[in-house]
Amino acid sequence: MVTPNLKMACVRLIEEIATDDKAKLRGVLKKIAECCFKQDNYHLAAKKFTQAGDKVQAMRALLKSGDTRKIVFFASVSRQRDIYVLAANYLQTLDWQRDADAAKNIVSFYTKARAFDLLAGFYESCAQVEIEERRDYEKALAALNKAHECLQLGGDTSKAAARIRSHIDAIRKFLAVQELYTDSPLEAVAQCEDMTKLNLEPAVRKRDLFAFLVQHYVNGKDYAAARRCLQELQMAVPGVAVSDYVDAEVLRLVGWSSDERRSLQQMSLLARCVTASNGAATERDEDRYSSDGEVQEELFD
Q1: Are 84 and 110 in contact (CB under 8 A)?
Q2: Strand, helix or coil at 93?
Q3: How many H helices and E strands in the chain?
Q4: Is the dihedral of CA 155, 116, 205, 247 positive or negative?
Q5: Could you tell me which residue, 292 or 224, shows the higher pLDDT?
């Protein structure tokens, strides 16, 4: 008896699978796509998911591949809300702050998806970048205005809209102070000093308010007042790197040293520890009163 020479058959994945049952074909294609996905072959998985009619899963496969060009292209041609949102969400994980095309695509995809709440959130992020990285409050204001418009388009009157309005008001006030400074510097400084006593973060940072004051006093050669502002800044914002917000020449003129910075940081840390300790003591007192019913006696006797 002759034993046939058996060889391992090599099965090749072909473009089309012969069957007249469309539902069965989609099921087979989906299983193939899932196998490809598990093997990290994301591009082929996306292709098979697309052939199976599951474009959302196809997009998820592309997202895993990290192929930004294909992700943007696929979102553009698919024209599905969920896919637009997935693509825009992905683009926000990239360095969109330095990629104008990515930022434009994020806005475009959220707009096409009519995801106005997400678009508003993106504009808020844009505003924060303008403040944190560029200290450009005018561009930040423009971004927040767009965020507010998006929430209005979506019919949102929630806390998010109220928060954005409060940020807009704070930035407008700071910009008005800067504009006022040209004609009435003393009045502008007084208003800025009042603003340092408020908690306007993250819309207007205390460090920028104090930097404005320091520059004013240095321009008038009142180095003692400028130095006092730096000390107040260190106490108000523990750990802040003053050199990031105040010019090195200004620091030299006011005699600002690294030793003084460390000393003020230690004082600020001590003050926070004392505050926390007092707060804990207050909580213990409240617990004692509430445990034995003496709260009512304290309040109403």
Answers
A1: yes
A2: coil
A3: 15, 0
A4: negative
A5: 224
Q: Which of 192, 205, 199, 143 is nearest to 168 (CA)?
A: 143
Tokens of residue 250, six digits: 């200004």
**Per-residue b or e along 46-66, where b marks 16 or more CB atoms closer than 10 Å to that residue's CB:** bbbbbbbebbebbbbbbbeee
pLDDT digits (tens, 9 = 90+) for 265-286: 444 444 454 445 555 544 554 4
Look at the block and give the residue holding tokens 């767009």. Answer: 146
Judge whether 185 and 158 are in contact, CB under 8 Å: no
Q: In this predicted model, what pLDDT tens digit does every residue of 91-105 receive, in sequence order?
A: 999 999 999 999 999
- Reported as a single tens digit per residue, the pLDDT across 46-61 is 999 999 999 999 999 9
Instruction: Record the pTM.
Output: 0.77
Q: Residue 61 and residue 46: Cα distance in Å, rounded?
A: 5
Burial of 117 (0-12, 13-18, 19+ CB in 10 A): middle
Do the Cβ atoms of 105 and 88 come closer than 8 Å? yes
The beta-strand segments (E) located in the chain are none
